[in-house]
Structure formats: structure tokens, C-alpha cells
Design brief:
This protein has 151 residues and is α+β, with helices and mostly antiparallel strands. The protein has one domain: Heat Shock Protein 90, CATH 3.30.565.10. 34% of the residues lie in helices and 30% in strands. The protein is built from four helices and seven strands. The strands form two sheets. The chain has a five-stranded mixed β-sheet with strand order 2-4-5-7-6, with helices on one face. A hairpin with a 2-residue loop joins strand 4 and strand 5. The protein starts with a strand and ends with a strand.
Length: 151
């Protein structure tokens, strides 16, 4: 566990997927308000951010937009990754983090997945004293939020 600025971890993760986003004509807007620090397993949280950014690209339509934003409150930072892609239906949202109902959904350009990415992402966030939540309106947007304690 080390102390690191959230913005640095996020930017590293965005850089990994920037070319893939550009190939789909997707804009990634970074709207970070703080240079807050967290005490985390850097590799684990890097995986969390990369999985969420990768999924946002995967489920966004060409010419879509992804917004990476943050908010600090009561000793925590909430990092949100919001896309305006296909969304997640309510019946799928209910079992999204359930190992017994592991599901893989193809992306908007036919991208494949294992169905394990979000399960791993949630587990890694929790191992770092954080949590992962999701809100979605099918056909409008999906917003995944990672909440981590501040240093």
C-alpha cells in the first residue's frame, strides 16, 4: 500500500485506452476537481480504473463521450466514469456483481469479454477499503463510481 494522487492513477489508465477510444471516435473528458491522495495497492486500483474505462469504451457508441470526474466528501473521494452508451437494463443491474450469474456482453463494435471484469473490479475496490456502485439508464448513460478513503 502506498500513498498516491488519484489523478495520477486515473491519467495513467486513460492513457492506456486513449488510442482505442480514438479509433471508436469516443472523447474522454477528464473533469477532476482535486489532487486528493489515497493509500492503496496501486496495481489493484490501476486494474479497477482500467476495467471501468475499458468497459465505458466497449459499451459506448462511436462518436460517444466518456466523462471521468471526482468529488470529495466526508473523508472519501468518489471517482465516477460515465458513458453515454447502451446502458444496463434493471434486470441485469440486479445481478451485475453476482458470481453465480457471470455474464459477458458484447460491446457496441462486437468486443468480447469474460464476464469477470466487473466482479474483479468490485473485489479489488473493496480490498482497498473502497466500494463500487453503478447507476444506469438504458440507452442514456451508465455511471460507475469508485469510492475510496482519503489519506
Amino acid at each position: 500500500m502506498v500513498k498516491i494522487k488519484v489523478v495520477d492513477l486515473l491519467q495513467q489508465s486513460i492513457n492506456v485506452y486513449q488510442q482505442i477510444a480514438e479509433e471508436k471516435n469516443i472523447v474522454i473528458k477528464v473533469d477532476l476537481q482535486t489532487d486528493a491522495e489515497v493509500y492503496v495497492d496501486v496495481d489493484a486500483i490501476r486494474v479497477v480504473f482500467r476495467n471501468l474505462i475499458s468497459n465505458a469504451i466497449k459499451f459506448s457508441y462511436p462518436k460517444g463521450k466518456i466523462v471521468v470526474s471526482d468529488k470529495t466528501k466526508h473523508g472519501f473521494i468518489k471517482i465516477s466514469i460515465t458513458d453515454n452508451g447502451v446502458g444496463i437494463k434493471i434486470e441485469k443491474l440486479i445481478s451485475l456483481f453476482d458470481y453465480s450469474s457471470k455474464q459477458s456482453t458484447k460491446g457496441t463494435s462486437g468486443e468480447e469479454g469474460s464476464g469477470l471484469g466487473l466482479l474483479l473490479t468490485k473485489e479489488l475496490a473493496e480490498q482497498n477499503n473502497g466500494k463500487l456502485s453503478v447507476k444506469s439508464k438504458p440507452g442514456v448513460e451508465t455511471k460507475f463510481t469508485v469510492t475510496l478513503p482519503l489519506v
